Amino acid sequence: MKALIELEKMEFRACHGCYELEKVVGNRFLVDVGIEAEVGEAAATDDLRKSVNYLTVYELVREQMAIPSDILENVAHRIAATLRERFAQIERVTVKVTKLAPPLGGKIAGVSVTLSE
User: Fold this and answer.
1) Sign of the C-alpha dihedral, residues 71, 72, 75, 80?
2) How far apart are CA 99 and CA 86, in angstroms?
């Protein structure tokens, strides 16, 4: 049995960006994670160890968001790779990282990178 597990709009303050000010001051980011996983055994047995633990996913995302990167592509890739490494039952993971109000010289709500592995 396959499931799509989604953690939506996790908000973090982090120092991602290619400009020096971003690396010092930081910015607000949203992260969305979609995980396609085999959960048949977990569903049948009600055993969390056989599923993808949402708290662990959040903690792994938080750890990766704390590591500064110049580009969002790197952040999204590190999150996806960490999740796949931790949970063998993941078949596909999609990570969307959004930088809110990026310093682009005008009014903009955000810029996002979405990566699927």
Assistant:
1) negative
2) 26
